[in-house]
Amino acid sequence: FWWFSHCEKRSYREPVTSLGKDWHRPCLKCEKCSKTLTAGGHAEHDGKPYCNHPCYAMILKTWGNTGKNQHIVNAY
After folding, report:
1. How far apart (Å, rounded) are the C-alpha atoms in residues 23 and 53?
2. Measured CA distances, 9 to 5, 27, 33, 39, 41 (Å)
3. Residue that wins the pLDDT comparison between 72 and 19
4. Per-residue model confidence (pLDDT) at position 63
5. Mapping DSSP to helix (H, G, I), strand (E, B) and coil, where does residue 62 land?
6. End-to-end CA distance of the chain
7. Coil, helix or strand for 55?
8. Mean pLDDT, the chain, as a whole number?
9. Comparing 47 with 34, which gets the higher pLDDT?
10. What PANTHER family does this protein map onto (predicted)?
11. Among 2, 17, 25, 62, which residue has the fewest nearby CB atoms (within 10 Å)?
């Protein structure tokens, strides 16, 4: 079985890998809205997963409104 330190659970199912970590499939969720994500189908900000729309899009919009520098974030 696999042990997942970020959620302190174990599973017999094979993990999904994203952001350099192994995740239970149901634990790979958007930090803001908790929508379940797929490896390779989400964005990252400060090491945390976000859905592309609407949550990551709102982060980008917020950056634009505050004048902070925007940077390219890899999709994982």
Report:
1. 21
2. 7, 10, 22, 19, 24
3. 19
4. 59
5. helix
6. 24
7. helix
8. 81
9. 34
10. CYSTEINE-RICH PROTEIN 1 (PTHR46074:SF3), CYSTEINE-RICH PROTEIN CRIP FAMILY MEMBER (PTHR46074)
11. 62
50 and 59 Cβ atoms separated by less than 8 Å: yes
Candidates 43, 41, 68, 47; CA nearest to 57 is 43
Lookup: tokens for 74:
């890899």
Across residues 42-60, what is the average pLDDT?
90
Task: Return the sign of the alpha-carbon dihedral for residues 36, 38, 43, 44.
Answer: positive
Enter the pTM of the model. 0.71
> Tokens in use for 26?
């149901």
Per-residue pLDDT for 13 more than 70? yes
Question: What is the Cα–Cα distance from 30 to 25, expressed in whole angstroms?
Answer: 12
Residue 70, pLDDT score: 45
Residue recorded with tokens 């890899």: 74
List the beta bridge partners of residue 29: 36
Which structural domains are found in the chain, ordered by start?
Answer: 2-66 (2.10.110.10)
